[in-house]
Design goal:
The chain has about 475 residues and is α+β, with helices and mostly antiparallel strands. Helix content is about 45%, strand content about 25%. Strands 1, 2, 3, 5, 6, 7, 9 and 10 form an 8-stranded mixed beta sheet that branches.
Amino acid sequence: MRAVRLALLCVALLGACRTEAVTRGRKLHTCSQLRSRRDATRTEEGIHKSGSPILKRSPDITKGSAPKSEHLLRIDDHDFTMRPGFGGPAIPVGVDVQVESLDTISEVDMDFTMTLYLRHYWKDERLSYPGKTNQSMTFDSRLVKKIWVPDMFFVHSKRSFIHDTTMDNVMLRVYPDGKVLYSVRVTVTAMCNMDLSHFPLDTQTCSLEIESYAYTDDDLMLYWKKGNDSLKTDDKISLSQFLIQEFHTTTKLAFYSSTGWYNRLYITFTLRRHIFFFLLQTYFPATLMVMLSWVSFWIDRRAVPARVPLGITTVLTMSTIITGVNASMPRVSYIKAVDIYLWVSFVFVFLSVLEYAAVNYLSTLQERKERKFRERLPCTCGMSHAGHVMMSSSYSEMDTMTTGHYGMSEVNGDKREHMLVQLAMDKEQGIHGGAGKTRSYSSLWIDTHAIDKYSRVIFPGAYTLFNIIYWSIYS
């Protein structure tokens, strides 16, 4: 019984403690709520009383419900795979171009590289939007993929690309009335058919052609927006080998047998080649080699080791110049102006070598005839002095291959040959008493020195005449 009483007492005490704890918790929660309400009330009263702008919060306009560009332009409400005004007249698309740079002109590949800003203007009423002012909206390439744009391409282009650093260089500007400006920055390498018959004194005309790929002139009408003023060029454009003379625009129709007629826009520019580089690298060296070959005409004809290497050196140098020029040129099937000059110069150098070969051959032939004539002469008793003169005035075949007589002037050589001939003539006349032998021997004597003398005048005169004719025709 005593244990039962103790258990009931403990249960009663635990219940009383739990009831007291719940009551205290309710009281604390009620106090905290009252305190929070009181602080909030005081804060609101302080704000209303002070009116401080620092404590006021402005509304976040970025979290407002601003209309999206797609919704404003109603892109989802139209089919932009069709051109504007489909089924009606051709849509006019104006074009203007600003040339940023003209990079390279290649004669070997027959092409040029140009970087330009290509701008298109047209009107698409499907893109019109309500606006109180005529303020336009500008977009990048992400919206271009969702609407209709003209499908322009470059005719006869080899390579082309739209710049994409740091983003695609594409701009789209839309006006409230539906007018559209579409601009791209593009680099294109296009073909240029060059006529190199006057190279390097030539003038080349190249053109960049723009055309729609899919739309004929029944659907799309291309035109230069401002005529010739539609083409602008940077004043800093310059080329190392060419002088840009003119830029102009034209418009023509192109016909394809399977698809029809297309509008085609032309950007035509004229280039004139700078000649000074080729004067220094080609024309002056070739002229100097020709003049150097003339030096051999003033060297004694018996100086074989001096005249032969000089002629061979000039011939090989001219061959090297011709090879170097042709290595940097396309293999065209016609003759260029520089080829004419170099090959004529090569012929002059080669003829100077042949001239010495003729002089040397005639001199050798004359010596042989003189030697045979001396062998037929009778005994020269009593003519020791004359024989001494004859032997000293002549030179043997070995002298022609040595330099022993380089110091003798041509005048003295002529006198010695004349003395030899005269002595032989006198001897024949004294023995036979006739003049037949004299005439026969006199016909054997050839003045080989005259060939060099005439060459000193003929070669420079002929080459000077050639230069006058050449530069008057091609310059």
